[in-house]
Amino acid sequence: MATLFLAISNIHLSEELEKTTAQNKVIKVLDGDTFLLNSAQRVRLLAASAPEMENCGGEEAKKRLEELVLNKNVNLSEPFIDQYSRVVALVYVDEVMVNEALLREGWARYDGSGKSQKEALKQAYEEACSKKRGIFSSLCRAEQPNKPNCLIKGNIDKATGTKTYHFPGCREFNITVVEKDLGEDWFCSEKEAEAAGFVKSQNCFGKKF
């Protein structure tokens, strides 16, 4: 039933968007990948996931999205409604695809979707990664701890959201990369890591830091 409702809503949405773009003026940017139209409709960028506001790169991503869309009329291509009643779409300001711009500049992660522009979005994301832009730069990729001897790495599994920590002597310590845009970080003690919601990796074999 819910699937049928979303399908009907998406048909209605497409019809309305085809009628006019006059109401598609952005009046507020909510975060790095979501904004509000003057019709009160929330819009989320398709295929581009920016950091949460409390995480590394969140403020920068929001600021860049504001520069691209705030107080401007946007065209929404291939839109659909998600489970949160947001319009998810490829967003254009004149000839600029905003989704691609944020990915290319390194202020969002590519989620594997993108409909007709999937390949372009993927290439933009890969370019940002290879050239270490935005959240893939030293700003958020913490290769060294913030403080000496704070050698515990907090890691969040991208598939499950499971939060674990690793320290020297744990099997996966050396291959674990701290990606602060995802909420990962370095910690000075096991107690500090656990207070942040991380649990000791099973690959630490019961060792203590």
Number of domain modules: 2
Give unreliable regions as ranges: none
Beta strands, count: 14
Total number of helices: 5
Share in β-strands? 15-25%
Could you say what the CATH architecture of the largest domain is? Beta Barrel
Instruction: Give, in order, the helices and strands.
Output: HEEEEHEEEHEHEEEEEHE
N- to C-terminal distance: 52 Å
- From the alpha-carbon coordinates, what is the Rg to the nearest angstrom? 20 Å
CATH class of the largest domain: Mainly Beta
Sheet bearing the most strands, described?
6 strands, mixed
- Classify the helix fraction into a percent range: 25-40%
CATH topology of the largest domain: OB fold (Dihydrolipoamide Acetyltransferase, E2P)
Class by alpha and beta content: alpha+beta
